[in-house]
Amino acid sequence: MISRLTILSCLLLTPLCAHATDLPKQGTDSYTTIYVTVTASTLKAGNRTVIVYDTYGVSQNDNGRPMFNAMGVRCQGMREIIGTESTNRGTCVDTDKDGDEIYTTYEAKGAVGSHIFTGGTGKYAGLTGTADYTLEPVKGPDGRGMSIVRHKATWKLP
Asked: Please, which pLDDT band fits residue 8 given cuts at 50, 70 and 90?
């Protein structure tokens, strides 16, 4: 009887165990996110412009690996422009198909920046590391902000 319960338990839990082991404990990955700005508010003060924005996007791992693959993304941030210098700062939540989340903060000077992984939920709990990125603006048909962002990430799970 015990061996039947053990076998049944293993068979029932195998899909969960297999899914958890798909993710290595650390790695380096390249991924691309396409962002669309859904709201933005602009304040001008002399030679300074401040834009507070909310963006949504989709991330895809460039090599088809499980980390950062097929994730929905939401970021809220602020861009400050003084003369020709631009600084972006904000926070993002990336959500995978299981509903597990990755949390990041980011900062960029112009089109070059870095995300810092600050944790997550589920399989991403305790995530640390960084993702350096470059941003390529895309002209939207209605003037809405759009961009292609290419990331190079180094990360670790506990």
From this structure: very low
> Per residue in 76-112, is it b (16+ CB within 10 Å) or e — as a string?
ebebebeeeeeebebebbbbbeeebbbbbebebeeee
**Number of domains, the chain:** 1
In a domain, 22, yes or no: no
Query: For residue 63, what are the domain limits?
Result: 27-156
Instruction: Kindly report the pTM of this predicted structure.
Output: 0.84
Is residue 127 within 8 A of residue 102, CB to CB? The reply is yes
Q: Is 44 exposed, middle or buried (0-12, 13-18, 19+ CB in 10 A)?
A: exposed
**Gyration radius of the chain over CA positions:** 19
Alpha-carbon distance of 72 to 37, in angstroms, equals: 14
Q: Is residue 72 part of a domain?
A: yes
Residue pLDDT, tens place only, 100-130: 999 999 999 999 999 999 999 999 999 999 9
Q: In a 3-state reduction of DSSP, which class is residue 86?
A: strand
